């Protein structure tokens, strides 16, 4: 594991894990946007996205998640999802849920883009009323960009996240939470590499 400095493009590299996952951040308003990147060999973009979007398997790469389910498919490439973190989650996640939309696009060059963000509060409440014992967080922006490389069986995965967990938390805890979530890419990468194509 190593730490580094500014990339010159506004992203400050926080650390590079032994697995090759690079974690960086950039300021946006009062919070930071976090990014993780990883080169995956012998994994196609479609193989990665298939595992990343398998909502029933999400608990395998995010141990704090207690429930993830589709609420509604709006279009072939647009879904509404509920993500719930429960009683036994770490303090920053405890009893938080997110109602998000997920849009998936495949580009002509083989790049796959998945964008995720919270629905406006009123729309989320209309689709699924908020339980009294949960705090509904705000996923400002999140998503995957999976770029196909010249080597047909390799891809570059970039995950971006900006999140406000809602409820009062010191800003340093919110930023630590964001960093932890971005590091999920390491767990997901390990899962993809052990999943048959």
From TrEMBL:
Location of the START domain: 1-175
PROSITE patterns: START (PS50848)
GO CC, alphabetical: cytoplasm
TM helices/strands, residue ranges: none
CDD domains per record: START
Name of protein: START domain-containing protein
Signal peptide: none
Gene3D superfamilies (alphabetical): 3.30.530.20
GO molecular function per UniProt: lipid binding
